[in-house]
Amino acid sequence: MSLSSCGSSSICSLSSGILVANDPSSKLSKRRFTPSISQPGWKQRRDSSDNNRGVSKVFGYYGLKSPPYKLDALEPYMSQRTLEVHWGLHHRGYVEALNKQLEKNDSLYGCTMDELIKVLYNNGNPFPEFNDAAQVWNHDFFWESMQPGGGDMPTLGLLQQIEKDFGSFTNFKEKFTEAALTLFGSGWVWLVLKREAKCLAIIKTSNSINPLVWNDIPITSLDMWEHAYYLDYRNDKAKYVNTFMNHLVSWNAAAVRMVRAQAFVNLGEPKIPVA
Amino acid sequence: MVANAVTGIAASLKCALFPCQGFQGSTRRLQWRKNERQCARKAGHGVITAKFDLKPPPYQLDALEPHMSHETFEYHWGKHHRAYVDNLNKQIAGTELDGMTLEDIVFVTYNKGDLLPPFNNAAQVWNHDFFWESMKPGGGGKPSGELLDLINRDFGSFEEFVEEFKRAATTQFGSGWAWLVYKANRLDVGNAVNPRPSDEDKKLLVVKSPNAVNPLVWDYFPLLTVDVWEVTITNFILFIPLNYDL
């Protein structure tokens, strides 16, 4: 099966992005291709106009990935109703809109979700599909940034890095909360590892923008679109943000992402022993 | 004749915030006002402080039931709109924006796109005032007279206008507003002709704007608006029975 030809992939995508088209000129095309993964959304179609009889064109679609916990698992901090509406309606809506838009455009097939977002962002002049693609990725990332029994503090290396870049964990919490409360309109707040600066930073973005477009590595995120908190907290944004920091944020997930990120960013001086 | 229609509509809106003279030379008027204030100070008069008040909608809070509930108003007007007003007052206290009219603050803080901090609050106060006045109990239906003629002329038919308005409202990504506006073709100077007229001049248009931006800053005359921030939609969903035909 031919893999993505979109160039080097940056980070393993956490999303449901599935692979796609096959290359008719490759040797594999003589064999009938049957996908072994039974994911919703794989479709197979025989193209009778093709020279090689029996060649199937595979179209991959992005599927709606469920959060790694049941919809009522985050009660009482994020209600089941919120998850049902936020994931079941909004997130699902973005996935379906993205699939519909991708149907029309063959050249976008074959990309992982990360690559798709960068390509569609088009250096600041985004294509129409960008909003939906980015929102699918953002929400996948967000569900994984939370866990039942979350909150508390990070440990080990991640805590050390936070203390190095923000002074203390309390200071980081304050800065994160401040960023969330000063964001106007819809958007997201992110803890990222900056590649160039080689340090952690808090950034806030509008609408569907995410730090992948600036080639930074997100570690955790908070959805500040009103649909994320309005059902549970109405206009009390501060309570929502504090609840997220104290009870929902998954430092386990953040630690895993941090470990992966360190494969791409060198955070320390190498310890070369002097003989 | 069209200009008369606009002022006619403006007057009939009974919107105290919508100046009937329009915005011709608004920057000139702004300077005039500044001079006036300076003169007042020199003469030793009392210091002018302006404080915006939260203006109530021109109907009772439960007057729009069952379409928009009493609780929606309590949140949307009573909390969100009030917060914008309070924050705006805090931001302008003691600055040169103190004493200016709301539209002038919106225009000045828009700063040709490079927003100054009070813009979001000022524009949202104006937008919400305009939004409450864009609705009324027993509203809906069709307009009549000049407005209907203009709508038919510029959109083809009333139904097409409704479709376009709905489309603008539902395709605004993130937070924002959808507007029916009148776009005039004019310059600041009284007797000159605009050398760069476009097809869309002297017409009614449907436009959409993100976050707090409103068409005043593009020099249009807003006629109608609908709030498509998620707060409005969520309040709508929260407080209306789920089988209501949205």
UniProtKB/TrEMBL annotation, chain A:
Keywords: Chloroplast, Metal-binding, Oxidoreductase, Plastid
GO MF assignments: metal ion binding; superoxide dismutase activity
Coiled coil: none
GO cellular component, one term: chloroplast nucleoid
Gene3D superfamilies, alphabetized: Fe,Mn superoxide dismutase (SOD) domain, Iron/manganese superoxide dismutase, C-terminal domain
Cofactor: Fe cation
InterPro entries hit by this protein: Mn/Fe_SOD, Mn/Fe_SOD_BS, Mn/Fe_SOD_C, Mn/Fe_SOD_N, Mn/Fe_SOD_N_sf, SOD_C_sf
Domain Manganese/iron superoxide dismutase N-terminal: residue ranges: 62-146
Name this protein carries in UniProt: superoxide dismutase
Species this chain originates from: Olea europaea subsp. europaea
Higher taxonomy: Eukaryota, Viridiplantae, Streptophyta, Embryophyta, Tracheophyta
UniProtKB/TrEMBL annotation, chain B:
Known cofactor(s): Fe cation
GO cellular component entries: chloroplast nucleoid
UniProt domain Manganese/iron superoxide dismutase C-terminal: residue ranges: 143-230
Keywords attached to this entry: Iron, Metal-binding, Oxidoreductase
GO molecular function: metal ion binding; superoxide dismutase activity
Domain Manganese/iron superoxide dismutase N-terminal, chain residue ranges per copy: 51-136
Enzyme Commission (EC) number: 1.15.1.1
Class of enzymatic activity (EC top level): oxidoreductase
InterPro entries for this protein: Mn/Fe_SOD, Mn/Fe_SOD_C, Mn/Fe_SOD_N, Mn/Fe_SOD_N_sf, SOD_C_sf
Reactions the enzyme catalyzes: 2 superoxide + 2 H(+) = H2O2 + O2
Role: Destroys radicals which are normally produced within the cells and which are toxic to biological systems.
Record-stated family: Belongs to the iron/manganese superoxide dismutase family.
Name of protein: Superoxide dismutase
